[in-house]
Specification:
Layout lengths: L6 H23 L10 E7 L10 E4 L2 E11 L6 E7 L10 E7 L3 E7 L11 E6 L4 H29 L1 H29 L1 H20 L1 H45 L3 H8 L1 H23 L11 H14 L1
Parallel strand pairs: 1-7, 2-6, 5-7
Antiparallel strand pairs: 1-4, 2-3, 3-4, 5-6
């Protein structure tokens, strides 16, 4: 008895086969490999997952080797755990790094920077993350300060236009240009009016310069003569001063010779010892009398003191001697 297959079974089998091929084809086109390929999952922790999703490709030297599988919050607050699957049989050292690279056309991709360690990363291992600035972000960093400057300029222009300052500046500039034009015209007219005088002045200056140049030798001779005369005068004055000094020294020597020889009053005073002692004694006695007079004036001056006061002063003076 022959086994018969119903039409419903045929349709179901065909549908199952179609679904299988559809899933295999979708996985192949999505870069997930075959269902029978062994999956290799790795993780990395990122600070920002902007433009990174489950369809973001994983590249190795520009060749697609997998896709991002899952994105979730990491245990560290503010960071994200990004899991990606490798469909290719690629040995991954445990010091391999993950770098997010952006482009203008293809968005962002995860690039594997293969390390040099001899130990391979285990399944579900975490790889280090290396941040990278995308092209758009780099352009944004450049345009951001430029945009601020443009906004500042626009605001300044808007303020000038609203307050009428720009119109005032234009009017002031116009007046300044008119004033400069008038000054320039006046200067031109003045130069034109006095041009003959200026020509005469320049001619005179040229004539004076020519005369100085022609008489340069004579002028140099006059200067040399003045210098010679000045030198002679200085030498004559110096000689006169030296002669006067020598005469003074000679006379002083003669005076000192006479003093040493005992000639004259000064010579006698210097060389006579007895006269010196008498003068010294007289000076001492005079000093004693002056001191006594200062202390007992009634002894020497009778008026206005009484006899009793004079006698008392004499007695006191005699007691001190």
């Amino acid at each position: 008895m022959a086994f018969k297959v119903s039409n419903e079974a045929k349709v179901g089998a065909l549908a199952a086969i179609s679904i299988t091929f559809l899933v295999l084809g979708y996985n192949f086109l999505a870069g997930r490999g075959s269902l029978f390929t062994k999956k290799y999952t790795l993780h990395t922790v990122m600070d920002d997952v902007n433009e990174v999703n489950t369809s973001t490709p994983v590249l190795f030297n520009g060749y697609k080797v997998g896709n991002v599988k899952e994105i979730k919050l990491a245990q560290t607050f503010g960071k994200f755990d990004v899991a990606f699957v490798l469909n290719e049989k690629l040995p991954i050292p445990d010091d391999t790094k993950v770098k997010v690279v952006g482009s203008l056309l293809n968005g962002k991709t995860l690039n594997l920077i293969i390390g040099k360690s001899g130990n391979l990363a285990d399944n579900n291992a975490f790889l280090s993350y290396v941040s990278d600035t995308s092209v758009m972000e780099a352009v944004g960093f450049v345009l951001k300060p430029l945009n601020a400057k443009i906004n500042s300029i626009v605001n300044s222009l808007d303020s000038l236009l609203s307050n009428g300052e720009l119109n005032k500046s234009i009017v002031s500039l116009n007046q300044s240009l008119k004033s400069f034009t008038r000054t320039s015209d006046n200067a031109s007219a003045l130069l034109e009016q006095n041009m003959p005088k200026i020509v005469d002045i320049l001619s005179n200056v040229q004539s004076i310069t020519s005369n100085l140049q022609k008489n340069n030798e004579s002028i140099n001779q006059v200067i040399a003569n003045l210098k010679t005369t000045s030198d002679n005068l200085a030498a004559a004055k110096l000689k006169e001063a030296v002669d006067n000094a020598n005469l003074t020294i000679t006379e002083l020597n003669a005076i000192m010779t006479k003093v040493n020889n005992g000639q004259g009053s000064l010579g006698l005073l210097v060389n006579d010892k007895e006269l010196y002692n008498n003068l010294n004694k007289a000076a001492f006695n005079l000093d004693v009398i002056l001191k006594d007079l200062n202390k007992h004036p009634a002894k020497y001056i009778p008026v206005p003191f009484t006899k009793k006061q004079r006698q008392k002063a004499i007695d006191a003076s005699n007691q001190q001697k």
